[in-house]
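Internal tracking record. Fields below are filled automatically when a chain is submitted to the structure queue. Please do not edit lines marked as system-generated. If the sequence contains nonstandard residues, flag them in the REMARKS field before resubmitting.
Queue: standard
Priority: normal
Entity type: single polypeptide chain
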Amino acid sequence: MHRLSFLSVLLVIAVSAPALEKPDITYRIFQFPADRAPVIDGDASDWAMVPESYVVDRSHMHNTAPQPPAAGDRTLAVRVKVGWVQGQNRLYFLYEAEDDYWDFAQPGLRNDTFEIMVDGDASGGPFVARDQKSVWTPDFIAPPDLRADPRISDEAHRRAVHGVHAQNYHVFTPAVGKDWAFVLGAATWIKDAPWAASAQRFDFKPGEGGRLTLEFYVTPFDYAGAEGPERSVTSLLEENKIIGLSWIVIDYDGPTPRGFWCLSPQRSAFGHASLLCAFRLMPLEPGSKP
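SYSTEM-GENERATED OUTPUT FOLLOWS
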């Protein structure tokens, strides 16, 4: 009787486990040897050991901008590599992009952007408190909106939902005269050292074309409390674990984006972790073992 009950619980868990997008694709996260972790300095040479099979380029993304350029437009070229190191709870990113027009002169959020969404335990579910119609998929049964209760303020709702079990970083490309990233959530400390670091290299001015190299790492959290790291839980990263991860490349060439390139098929992945893609934390490649 106890065995049947236990199996029933396992079955319920399996059936109700959150799904990830692109069921036929599992992207790979390269494992760096412990003594060869990338140095965050904007120099891509640390990543030379990563095979091309790990690169995610623009061919994996689709443009959801309201007025995208012609289908054959190749003015924006993007290459992304993701890495990790056994024993560190960090995800490393190398973002290399070439564009004919870099837009980063404005002081606010309007900036060419590499936006990443991370769900370190692939638990799924909404993590941005927005209008339910714009974030949740039509077949998702949304929980009651805490803001509907007048006793609960919008700020309390934001602190309870935004970036708590999954995180969203607007990484400015490039960041000039502003912080390296804007965190969509109340736990803004997650973009600061030692939880994150960033470095970039470029030689163009606003409105010019050129090449950008951006390195950074972030720490994924199963629970990121607005109160600070003392009330937070980092995600455990280990070999062959599947995490939820996706990104959006926002390409401004003026007031509105001409490119809103999404890795997930669902644009709403920016606020719903069940719509992210599956990434596997890979073992060491044979050529990189000590």
